[in-house]
Specification:
About 5% of the residues have low confidence. Helix 2 crosses helix 3, helix 3 runs parallel beside helix 4 and helix 4 crosses helix 8. The protein has 372 residues and is an alpha/beta fold. It has an eight-stranded parallel sheet. It contains twelve helices and 15 strands. 36% of the residues lie in helices and 20% in strands.
């Protein structure tokens, strides 16, 4: 199937650049271009694209305003936001992701035009691939769960007979609740993550009793805006992690975009330790990196939570958690923007439980309480 794309940007130069790049990506057809939000709305009706590449900052109607109008009119087209690295652009991009944009990329801004094109080509190809994967994926039926995991859908009684096959590594009781004390929770996610985190974190109680570490694949400049928005609606404080930040219970720490997040002992306290070491799985921050660091301190006292996203970042971290006696939850495919990261965890028999996003917070709380 050919993916029809409409390019929306107020810069004629950038419109042409994006068009030329997309034309060289297999299965993609650029059906048109628009320089304003108003023009884009008319062309969506006329051309029926599957996807927009949407400039965040435009003079008459910014990308977020256009996205809201698209949702208001119940248009089926999806969006990839294209943002410049400015504080305002980062906030609008984050708000667009929280409002349901498929994903976002950052406009390269080096002085080398050839390098900018190369970087933009790679970013667009990656996001298009994720979008095609999400469109082509055949989601399992509600009552179908991979062996080795317990499902928690409406048909839970029927599926409760599926017990994890984890041998001596399992820290899960027959009812699917953790029996080993949980001292920290680590959440990993990518495409679709902002919406999933907005659903999950605000439901966590102020007295949850453990620190929450979140790794969301995002570039530099965007995770601060994400933390701010989720903090505004949450019972626990949500912060973008920073070097030397003291780790406290009943708080959530979001890995800073462009840096790995770890922890370290410093003067008798646990603190955040950031790193610009090479990306893992083409990701920085990486879920696997963070889990390895946390495991050195919390061992089997970790609860791993893998949410929507493309790729397999977090799989080896979950394997480490299980080998240490900890517990792992994967998001149910029905609520995933891209059923990639949690799918690999389930298929490799590392998930103790498969949970829909709307029930994820309550299961995290139940598992923590059961382990105490």
């Amino acid at each position: 199937m050919t993916l029809k794309v409409l390019v929306v940007d107020d810069s004629a130069l950038y419109r042409q650049l994006v068009k030329n790049i997309l034309r060289n990506i297999p299965s993609v057809e650029v059906v048109g271009m628009a320089c304003t939000g108003v023009e884009a709305l008319a062309k969506i009706v006329e051309l029926q694209p599957h996807l927009l590449t949407l400039d965040v900052q435009m003079p008459d109607m910014n990308g977020l305003e256009l996205l809201i109008e698209i949702k208001k009119r119940r248009m089926s087209v999806k969006t990839i936001m294209v943002s410049g690295l400015t504080a305002r652009g980062a906030q609008v991009t984050t708000d667009a992701l929280l409002a349901g944009a498929f994903d976002a990329i950052q406009k390269p801004n080096s002085s080398d035009a050839d390098n900018n094109r190369t970087v933009l080509t790679s970013l667009l190809a990656e996001k298009i691939s994720a979008f095609l994967e999400s469109r082509n994926a055949t989601m399992p039926k509600r009552n179908a769960v991979a062996p080795g995991a317990i499902s928690t859908r409406a048909c839970e009684d029927e599926l409760g007979s599926l017990k994890p096959d984890l041998g001596n590594r399992s820290s899960i009781s027959p009812d699917g609740l953790a029996t080993r004390r949980i001292d920290a929770v680590v959440i990993g996610t990518s495409t679709g993550g902002p919406v999933a985190l907005r659903e999950l974190i605000p439901k966590l109680p102020a007295s949850i009793g453990v620190p929450i570490f979140v790794v969301q694949h995002m570039p530099q400049g965007y995770t601060k805006s994400l933390a701010k928005r989720i903090d505004e609606i949450s019972q626990i404080p949500v912060r973008e992690a920073a070097q030397g930040m003291i780790i406290e219970t009943n708080r959530a720490f979001i890995a800073p975009g462009g840096l790995h997040m770890g922890i370290a002992q410093q003067r008798g306290k646990l603190v955040i330790q950031t790193s610009d070491s090479p990306p893992e799985h083409n990701c920085r921050p990486s879920v696997d990196y963070t889990i390895r660091s946390l495991a050195r301190v919390y061992g089997g006292g970790l609860l791993g939570v893998i949410l929507t996203g493309m790729g397999r970042d977090g799989t080896e971290g979950c394997r480490l958690i299980k080998n240490l006696g900890g517990s792992v939850i994967a998001q149910h495919p029905e609520g995933c923007t891209v059923y990639g990261m949690p799918k690999v965890v389930v298929e490799e028999r590392l998930a103790d439980r498969v949970v829909p996003i709307e029930k994820m917070a309550s299961w995290i709380v139940r598992m923590i309480e059961k382990s105490r």
